[in-house]
Write a structure and sequence with these properties.
The protein has 413 residues and is mainly beta. It folds into two domains: 52 residues; 338 residues, Beta Barrel (Porin). A hairpin with a 2-residue loop joins strand 6 and strand 7. Helix 1 packs antiparallel against helix 2. The longest helix has 30 residues. It is globular, with a radius of gyration of 26 Å.
């Protein structure tokens, strides 16, 4: 009814003034008035719809990020409503031919992750991430990702926004290391799986409890400083860092640690920075960069960890590695709203580079050589929030190469 009334007013306005619109300027003015009335009508229609449904929603703007988070995780900060609901999901199929001749394949409803945020005020904001992996948990356990699916709180924190130069975050949050840990939504990296560097060396998704101060040093230069619960380093194989995460589960007698990060984004399309983590047993650092120019993108990370609290000669003391990824959107060569990036990624990692006795052999006497992964593939974006991926990975270690072909779909909302 509101829309009909507004259009009637527009028609009346045009009829009553047509005798005076004898030159181009009058006609242009009338057109502008009609446009403004139409916009006002749409606002009234939207507001009426919100009153009927009781919900004012915000769509994802994939060009916006808040304090280094992904677009969907940043949604609450730009929400029209106090309540914000967003999220992401991904599933994949992979087929691996191992160097020894065996084959294996898997289909996995890998992740469904809702974000729920709430603005108490414009300056006090709750942001949460809930994660269901491998289809969820149906075994009554749900605590160990290595034995099946599970559900957990990925982060839950309060932001106290005070000034562009200093803000405070309290709760369980993502550790600001590398590129993927804070920005792990599937539309933000090209490979089907996250880089192994940011799985074994920077153990994404890595979230700990603590307090963070963050803000701008100056325009284009941002910082984060976080006091957090420390990793509990283990000496059992390549996952010794990953298995040390405390996460959001009950963490008894936690040790303390600190993280610092600085990022520069003063040039259009460029992000470059460094992060460092330290506790009484470990030091970890990384350098990272992400550069987008036109249809091309290049991003990568190098990281290294050193351990000092070793007890036996077979404890790991050094882990290192990194990757670089380059892509180009071939659909930029034609007129289309969709995207088709093709990419190649090179990765070299060694999570057990050195042991306490100075050797490069583990407890079984096996020589630990770096793993080299070469990935190539394609992404198709039928919508900016939806991606279909395909890649082929050659993973070489100790002179043997596994070959994996994968397909996946992912989305943010």
């Amino acid at each position: 009814m509101t829309k009909t009334l507004s259009l009637a007013l527009c028609a009346s306005l045009l009829i009553s003034t047509s005798s005076f619109a004898d030159d181009k300027s009058d006609i242009a003015e009338l057109k502008q008035q009609v446009k403004e009335l139409q916009e006002m009508t749409q606002v009234l229609v939207d507001e009426t719809s919100d009153l009927k449904t009781g919900f004012n929603y915000t769509t994802v703007d994939e060009t916006k990020t808040y304090s280094g988070l992904g677009a969907a995780a940043s949604k609450v900060y730009y929400s029209k409503s106090p309540l914000s609901i967003g999220g992401y999901g991904e599933m994949y199929y992979s087929n691996t031919k191992e160097a020894v001749g065996t084959k294996r394949s898997v289909v996995d409803v890998y992740r469904f992750v809702p974000y729920i945020g709430y603005k108490f005020t414009e300056n006090i904001i709750l942001n949460t991430e809930l994660e269901f992996e491998h289809g969820g948990s149906d075994d009554g356990d749900g605590l160990d990702e290595r034995t099946g699916g599970y559900a957990k709180v990925e982060f839950m924190y309060l932001d106290f926004l005070m000034h562009k130069n200093i803000n405070l975050r309290v709760g369980n949050m993502l550790v600001p290391m590398g590129l993927v840990n804070e920005r792990h939504e599937p539309t933000l990296f090209t490979t089907v799986q996250r880089p192994t560097t940011e799985n074994l060396l920077i153990p994404s998704t890595w979230h700990e409890s603590g307090v963070m101060a963050y803000g701008k040093i100056t325009d284009g230069l941002d910082y984060k400083v976080m006091g957090l619960t420390a990793l509990r380093a283990q000496a059992d194989g390549e996952k010794w860092l990953r298995n040390g995460r405390g996460g959001s589960f009950k963490n008894k007698n936690p040790e303390g640690a600190i993280v610092g990060r600085v990022d520069y984004s003063g040039l259009n399309g460029l992000l470059v920075g460094a992060s460092a983590y330290g506790d009484n047993a470990l030091t970890m650092w990384d350098v990272h960069a992400d550069y987008k120019v036109g249809a091309a993108r290049v991003y990568g990370v190098y990281t290294q960890t050193n351990r000092t609290d070793t007890n036996t000669s077979t404890d790991v003391t050094d882990a290192r590695g990194g990757y670089i990824n380059a892509s180009y959107d071939v659909f930029s060569l034609i007129k289309t709203d969709t995207k088709l990036p093709v990419f190649v990624q090179y990765e070299n990692i060694n999570p057990q580079a050195k042991f306490e006795d100075g050797s490069t052999k583990d407890i079984t006497g096996t020589s630990q050589h770096a793993t080299q992964n070469i990935s190539m593939g394609i992404n198709y974006f039928p919508h900016s929030q939806v991606v279909l991926k395909a890649d082929y990975v050659l993973s070489a270690q100790n002179g043997k190469t596994d070959k994996t072909a994968s397909l996946s779909m992912g989305f943010i909302f």
